[in-house]
Amino acid sequence: MSLAVIGMVAGMALGFAGYFGGFGAFLLVAALGAVGFVVGRFLEGDLDLGGFFRPRDDRRR
């Protein structure tokens, strides 16, 4: 499935949530979609979460 079709389906889901459930449902669907996107990228191996959990003072000299 192309990215355009996936984007269209996601937009339609957000539109239906906003229309039938109000703004709160719109935000919930958007947040859960973002979480699902990040988890999917992590499971595919495209995202390395090590950068989020390393200490900030770990500098190379």
TrEMBL record:
The chain crosses the membrane at residues 25-43. Keywords: Membrane, Transmembrane, Transmembrane helix. This is DUF2273 domain-containing protein. The lineage of its organism: Bacteria, Bacillati, Actinomycetota, Actinomycetes, Kitasatosporales.
